[in-house]
Amino acid sequence: MNLRTLGKGICRQSVPVWDLFVRVFHWSLVFAFTAAYVLSDDGGALHHAFGYVVLGLVAARIAWGFTGTQHARFSSFVPQPRVFVAYCRDIAAGRERRYHGHNPAGAAMIVMLLTLLVSTGVSGWLLTTDMFWGSKGLEVIHEICANSVLACAVIHVRGVLLASWRHRENLVGAMFSGRKRRD
């Protein structure tokens, strides 16, 4: 079996889920947020630059959420509250359904992360303006938002690992390849 035959076999056994934009966005966001977070207080202009990169990435992702491919569109994965609650109940019972795209818990986490990232970025930007320069209250809000992003990212990774284990599927690998196994 040569590589071309192997590649065709893999494509028949899997389906495209996350497009190139979503994958590049995801890993770029991981890098930019991590860099901004690690640099934090002492990062100065570099911290600000990475913060602006995060805001730019999130703005592009929000736009792609309305215009992108099927699994990238918010309309295809943002759950209604009752669907999210039912899915969480199913997780606790160990009987949650497998999704090709984002499951309801993952979708809710995406909405939460995007909201927190915008809040972190906007509060950080405001701290550079004359009106809010040196504002201790806004600085606290900025730090709470950034720490909340980190906490949500940890929960997100745990959810990915749980879903990977329960559904016997490498979701981290799927976020690199863009493909998940066919049902």
From TrEMBL:
Highest taxon above the source species: Bacteria
Record's keyword annotation contains Transmembrane: yes
GO cellular component: plasma membrane
Residue intervals of the Cytochrome b561 bacterial/Ni-hydrogenase domain: 17-178
Keyword tags: Cell membrane, Membrane, Transmembrane, Transmembrane helix
Subcellular locations according to the entry: Cell membrane
GO MF, any single term: heme binding
Record GO biological process: respiratory electron transport chain
Main location: membrane
Pfam families according to UniProt: Ni_hydr_CYTB
Membrane-related topology note: Multi-pass membrane protein
Record-annotated membrane-spanning stretches: 20-39, 45-64, 105-128, 140-161
The keyword Repressor is annotated on this UniProt entry: no
Protein name listed in UniProt: Ni,Fe-hydrogenase I cytochrome b subunit
